[in-house]
Amino acid sequence: MGRYGLYEDIELILWSCLSSWYYGYHISELNFPEASLTCTSPTASNLAGSRSSMLGGLPDCLGIDSQRYSAATAIFTVGGLIGSILSARAMDKVGVIGCIKLTGLLNVIGSVIMFAAPHWVVLVAGRVVAGLASGLAITTVAPLLNQISKTSTNSIVLSHSGSIGISNQLAIVLGIFSAQVAGLLTTGMKGDKPGKWRYVVLMSGVVALMQLVFGWIRVPNELMQRRKVASKHLEDEVVMQDEPDEAQYATASPQANPQDEESSPLLVDDSRRTVTTPTTSKHPDTLKSLLSSPALRPHVLLVAFCLITQQFSGINAVLFYSTPVLKGLMPEKSGLIGILVSLINVAMTVPSLVLIDRVGRKPLLLMSLVGMAVSSTLLAIGLDKHIETLSSIMIVTFVASFALALGPVPFLLISELVPAHAVPAVSSLALSCSWTSNFVIALAFLPLRDALAYEDGQGKMQGEGRVFYVFLVIHMVALVVIQKRLYRD
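The structure corresponding to this sequence follows.
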């Protein structure tokens, strides 16, 4: 069967992570060119009815108002929810590699629909298709990365399963950053160049096309089956050549003791932070059977809780609406601040690659939540008191704290807290909860912010930072739950 070298592993990891990149890109692709879409700037509004001679007479500006802009932003999560729900069925039919290729195809279709949209409704339809691809991707890439690390025959890959899992989140934040930069380069500093927003939404389709071509040439659908067989054969060869003494093995690796394994479903390998569940003859593979299993139900619910917390932590409120949030304080700098926020998101994900297998999942999660709680408090104060410098710094530290652990770690837990046969069903449940939470935040953040604010005697809105106290409460609840429940012996 042969060995899979480091180069082949890296090639497969990068190829699969392109699907995660789409997810991040679509989150932020409408952020920077907001003025062009909503026709709120003088440049865009003056040309709202014009049509581009270079794009087949398509309108330069779709005339989307603020409500339609919010709807177009949020509808992406509806497609993502559908994709997550259908992911388990898709993996059964075409396999995990086939699912990755399907995400590329859907991304091409969604990107082309948005690029050629003659009306805002068509743009919304394209966002649904892009969301469908992203929902499928986000439930497929993390388990695939876990399979890659387990089936590798390279010692470096085998010893860095956590770092490989973090590459999923790194691809997401790189996608967010790429969308912001693409918006700056194509629509200008203020994001208001008429018609140029179309090139922003087209870029993801170009990347998806390259992924598809490479996948057809280099990545056969049955690749993971081949890798599993090759890995199993090599393991058998090692066992035949050097069988360990049973007593020594039990002493060196106490958590491999069958008696211990039977006594507790929550055994933890402290170095790798993975959970060993009892071996049973009948593997539950449906959501109903997983939730009815006393051994697995706590893990399933904890994974779902972590993914919900990830969205309700407030991160997408910042990423979706970084420009509108800061526009009142820094009208000339809000676009660049959005890019800076995305860059910090990328930069702070990199340390996780190094720390995840050294410090561990739980300590990083607790550090992340504490940092977000402090940032939320100070950000609320900064926005309420109109302290520009404090608000800018706290948005950066908020995102940095999220990127340290709450961003990447929940995706790792899907594959680490439940056995392999349960991963598709758990992924579908957990990511469906995540998309639903994402949709609620996308629609409710700005109305909630406005509801908690008030109008002063001069007709100006005050107290817009109060919404971050709501996120503070969520951070504190998550701290307690994760401290008590994650990797409980």
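The beta strands are 267-269, 274-276, 454-455, 461-462.
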